[in-house]
Amino acid sequence: MNLVHKIETWGNKHHPVVLDPIRIALGVFLLFKGISFMNNTYTIHSILVNQNAMGLSDSTLMFFVYLVAFFHLVGGIMIALGVLTRVAALVQIPIMVTAVIMSNSVQLPVNTETSIAIIVLVLLVVFSVIGSGKLSIEKVIENQTTIFS
Fold this sequence. Notes:
The chain is 80% helix and 0% strand. It has seven helices and no strands.
């Protein structure tokens, strides 16, 4: 039994039902963050251009803005519905680590984005370990599969 299977089994056994509404709220938050990214692409692009330490071109930075928005939209829906929650959370983790680093480097009057990014990052790590829980499409499909077998 490999490590990933052990973590998955442990997470499935130790998933409190209280975390399901938190998972759904996290997914909805990421979905709305993706919509916000799509509505403010040029503002986010200008922030990235000002913070660009790697010397990436403008078109590459804009590609990353759209990529992050896409991952937030799709990942948020997947996490909220409980479909491949672990995979969706794992994909979101590097984005949120970058968000924590970027929000620390951008000087805002009140830097609440850093604390929100840290909370979301912690929740993503938690759900990448424990999975989606009982209130999820994964559990419904799993139960139907065992019924029809």
